[in-house]
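Pinned message: reference record for Tropomyosin
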Amino acid sequence: MDLFAQMAAKIAQLETELEETEARAESAEEQVKSLEEEVNMVGINLRSLENSETQASKREQDYDEKIKSLENEYGEIKDTSNFIQMSASVDEGSISLLEELENAKDEYEKVKQELENTMNELSEM
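Predicted structure (tokens):
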């Protein structure tokens, strides 16, 4: 019976080792599941970051295009402003000339009227 007792003790020891090994395996499986979930979350976060980077890059490109467009528009407006200022200067000069012309015309009409009056007086004599 000694052999039987040794075998029973060995079986009990092996059953204990089996239970410990099963517990470690179960713990390892839980860790694997936890790590798989973490990998999935990292993958989701990575895709989210890639999408955010793509959107940010698109916005940056749109802003660059808008800046170039606004710079071109600014240049055109500046050129137009310079042209208008030059035209205004020319117009001021033209207005001044027109005023002088109007004054000269009025002076001419006065002199003409005086001449006609003088001629009429002479012809009445």
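Pinned by admin. Summary line: The mean pLDDT is 91.
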